[in-house]
Amino acid sequence: ATNVAIVYPQDPVLRMGSNLTASCWVHPELGVHANSLFWTLNGHQLPSSLYRVLSPTNLSVTLAGLNASRQTSGDNLVCHNHKGHILAGSCLYVGMPPEKPVNLTCWSRNTKDLTCSWAPGGKGETNISTLYKLKYKLRWYGTEKECEDYSHTQPYSCSITQDLHLFTPYEIWVEASNRLGRATSDVIILDILDVVTTDPPSGVTVSRLGQLEDQLSVRWEAPPALKDFLFKAKYQIRYRLEESQDWKVMNDVGNQTSCRLAGLRPGTVYFVQVRCNPVGIYGSRKAGIWSEWSHPTAASTPHSERLMSCDSKSSGDSNSTLRRELKQFLGWVKKHAYGCSSMSMKLYDQWRVDMQKSPKTRNQVGKHRQMPRRKPTQTHTSAM
After folding, report:
1. CA-based radius of gyration for the chain
2. Mean pLDDT value of segment 12-39
3. Picking from 45-54, 167-176, 199-208, 374-383, which range would have the lowest pLDDT averaged per residue?
4. Could you tell me which residue ranges the Fibronectin type-III domain spans (predicted)?
5. How confident is the model at residue 335 (pLDDT cuts 50, 70, 90)?
6. Per CATH, the architecture of 5-95 is what?
7. Cα separation of 384 and 379, whole Å?
8. Domain 198-300: CATH architecture, name and number where available
9. Largest interatomic CA distance in the chain
10. What is the pLDDT averaged over residues 350-377?
11. Fewer beta carbons below 10 Å: N end or C end of the chain?
């Protein structure tokens, strides 16, 4: 029916709050009078008070104070005949021009790229497709370029991976545009060496300190990708109880690659992570950017002799729990260890990690664990 009926205007783009008058013109050969037509918006019939008969074959509708489009494909304004058949239609795109993009932030992973992210300004795109372009140039003599490697997982992110320059400031900004207008973010100026982040520390190990029931030793290695760089790293450690999701963070580790956790619960499995901040890389005076956390590493503190005392009322429950855990542990060892030489506390700790991943197994053990626990003392640190 599109060859004998037309809705005008076709697919208009309008600002929020504006008015629109559309008309439905029907070819005389259809033999349809304008009085018999009606309008719908997104499938809902519009009241006849909004209509105006312009001629025997032309019916208009006026929409005032338009709201933002409800869907990215546009709002469907459709003209129907008296039987409800669609004669013609149009898509309305209602929104606002883009506002200035905000929160432009950049970082470099091991000096191998320069990645920037940002956020839309104001209310965002309001269902009108907005195009964002990350622009950059060398501050004093470079030509303007556009980033090409836009992220598919993060909608407002792009990585510059070619022709990178160290010891040279960049000017970076974001341009936003849609069919209603355009806007540009503030320009930031940075040197790649001032925004370097690195891989997490490698070789993280957590072990007991003899029979000290409230302490664990943590060791790690500097990030491999930065071993040849001139920088002074600083580290953070965080740890949590096996049954908890709350991490405790140690901020005063400094540039050492080992640390002691103290004030821990006896007979308890802890998960530990480490991250790195490459401070002062190649002499930069900036604060540096923290890496991601390393993969969790697990270790258990020794059981307290007091809690294992046969005089304790809970010794029966404790021994029963230990026997149950030992039986499960030995069954696990048959699948993961070969010979007695493989039996070690690290193997036990690995079993505890696997148990953490299996809610069913964890609940079976945790349901019977009723040993009294000593209240932990305040956490403190000391360098080894």
Report:
1. 33
2. 92
3. 374-383
4. 100-195, 200-301
5. low
6. Sandwich (2.60)
7. 16
8. Sandwich (2.60)
9. 104
10. 50
11. C
More confident residue, 33 or 253: 33
Q: Residue 303's closest CA among 268, 350, 347? A: 268
d(Cα 265, Cα 373) in Å, to the nearest integer? 7
The residues, any chain, with a CB within 8 Å of residue 160's CB and separated by 6 or more, are 113, 114, 115, 116, 134, 136, 147, 149
* CB proximity list for 124: less than 8 A, separation 6 or greater: 130
- List pLDDT tens digits, range 261-290: 999 999 999 999 999 988 777 767 777 789
How far is it, in rounded angstroms, from Cα 297 to Cα 264? Answer: 16
Domain ranges of the chain: 5-95, 102-194, 198-300
- The tokens describing 140, both together, are 């004093």
- Answer for the pair 206, 217: CB distance below 8 angstroms, yes or no: yes
Bridging pattern class, strands 149-150 and 157-160 = antiparallel
Dihedrals phi, psi of 265, to nearest 5 degrees: -80, 140
User: Could you tell me what percent of the chain has a pLDDT over 70?
Assistant: 76
Q: Which residue has the tokens 């005063």?
A: 252
Q: Distance between CA 204 and CA 216 in Å, rounded?
A: 13
pLDDT digits (tens, 9 = 90+) for 113-165: 999 999 999 877 778 888 999 999 998 887 999 999 999 888 899 999 988 88
The pLDDT value recorded for residue 340 is 43
Q: At what angle do helices 315-336 and 345-357 cross, to 10 degrees?
A: 90
Question: Are domains 5-95 and 198-300 of this chain identical in fold?
Answer: yes
- For residue 250 the two structure tokens come to 């140690």
Asked if pLDDT for residue 378 goes beyond 70, the answer is no
Residue 56 DSSP one-character state: T
- Which phi and psi (to 5°) does residue 25 adopt? -105, 130
Q: Is the pTM of this model over 0.90?
A: no
Whether CATH 2.120.10.30 fits 102-194: no
Helix or strand (DSSP H, E) at 299:
strand 297-300
Between CA 277 and CA 251 the distance in angstroms is 11
CA dist 260 and 267 (Å) reads 17
